[in-house]
Amino acid sequence: MTTDVVVIGEVSGVFGVKGWVKIRSYTRPEDKIFNYREILAGDKDEWSPFNVVAVSGSHKSLKVALNSICSRDSAVQLVGKKIAVERKLLKTLRNGEYYWLDLIGLRVSNLSGHDLGIINTLHETGANDVLEVRGDNIVLIPFVLNVYVTSIDLANQKMVVDWDLEDS
Predict the structure, then answer these.
(1) If one looks up domain 100-167 in CATH, what number appears?
(2) 21-24-28 Cα angle (round to 5)
(3) Does the chain have fewer CB atoms within 10 Å around its N or its C terminus?
(4) DSSP annotation of 102
């Protein structure tokens, strides 16, 4: 399958004998993964399509039944596989909102033009998310638009931050 996919979770185990699988959701909140009824299971470029036929649980105990998975033995084959959706199924965001997956990989420079590196990941901290930028050093920058993050250019894969090297 050669479609643009976004990983939203993974199969973490099996549940029962009728083919249900436990899932670990990467969405926030976690049960938002239940919004998607057409999913893909696999990894890299090897994806298999499934329809979600039933859901159960909330937060840390999410379970789904998938079409064509009717036994525990079939479900076991999915353990460890990623769960993805086609990108076109994601909600269109308002101006100033970003999916983390679009920020990871952006080249970051400060207002002085110093290259800080590339966004490796983001961390949830409760107060605000934090960018982990890897270059010569690892730099942690609060993801606060119009305070520390002054511009984001997704087309050119660049971000400018108001961050001095001494702040690192």
Answers:
(1) 2.30.30.240
(2) 135
(3) N
(4) H
